[in-house]
Amino acid sequence: MRRLRRIIVMVLALALVAGAVYAIVAVLQRSETLVSERCVAVVGSASFELATDQTANTALITAVAVRRGLPPRAASIALATAMQESRLRNINYGDEAGPDSRGLFQQRPSQGWGTEAQVMDPTYAANAFYDGLVKIPDYESMEITQAAQAVQRSAFPRAYAQHEPMGRAFASALTGHSEAALDCELRMPEAAGDPAAVVDELTTAFGTQVAGVEGRSVRLEVTGPQAWAVAHWAVANAKALSITQVDAAGRTWNREQRKGWTDSAAASDGVTITVSAPTT
């Protein structure tokens, strides 16, 4: 009898321990502090990961190419170049070879790239890079080291090549030529989003857009590659703009679910970007 009691006690104790472990795991799984924020571009069987701030800069650089009507190859070259020059971060310092270098592309005011304030403006810097790139005949068929070097005049031209696969993957997604190819895993926003801020940033990135605001959502009547360019741009900027959901071409990216792009019953035409609601 005593042995039976001990067995029952042990079983109950194990059940309590198992329940406690399950509860702790469940809490940890829901904990926002454990979410490792990152963005991944997948093209074919290859995937490439960047930090959220780097991804936002890739989105801006690529959007400028889309706005100018440039091919995805131009964006690939620009992204690989900026990755080598600044790690895709808008830094306000240079190195020994170029002490006055600044910005995403480490452009030097002393070499005619513009003022320090101008080259520190990501939109200006991206346009300045493309201004140089389009002057190069046949840049689309050139090796990336040749095209980038012709614009940048770097002391280490071969270094650009190592970033070409990453540049191609993110450019393919962010120009809209690869569908549902960019995903960001993010914690939930701490503040409410502003649809007007989304419209302003979209306009800065892509130029004039047909956008309508309904409640917490921004609606754009765009289709094809342009739709996916905008949709991926929204995911890339979700952290900064408190975006919680993006709907495009029958697919949905939901920040809270963290499942990437999933099939959706939402309208398949256009793109809808939804920001977080005010906390109560």
Provide a quick synopsis of the model.
By secondary structure, the protein is an alpha+beta fold. 45% of the residues lie in helices and 15% in strands. It has 2 domains: 135 residues; 88 residues, no CATH class.
Folded structure, characterized:
There is one protein chain. The longest helix has 29 residues, at 2-30. The chain folds into 2 domains: 40-174; 188-275, no CATH class. With 280 residues, it is of the alpha+beta class. A 6-stranded antiparallel beta sheet has the order 4-5-9-6-7-8. The protein has a 3-stranded antiparallel beta sheet with strand order 2-1-3. Helix 2 (52-67) packs antiparallel against helix 9 (224-236). A hairpin with a 2-residue loop joins strand 4 and strand 5. The protein contains 10 helices and 9 strands. It has helices at 2-30, 52-67, 72-86, 116-119, 122-133, 144-152, 164-174, 195-206, 224-236, 238-241, and strands at residues 38-43, 46-50, 182-185, 211-214, 217-220, 243-248, 251-254, 261-263, 271-275. This is Heavy metal transporter.
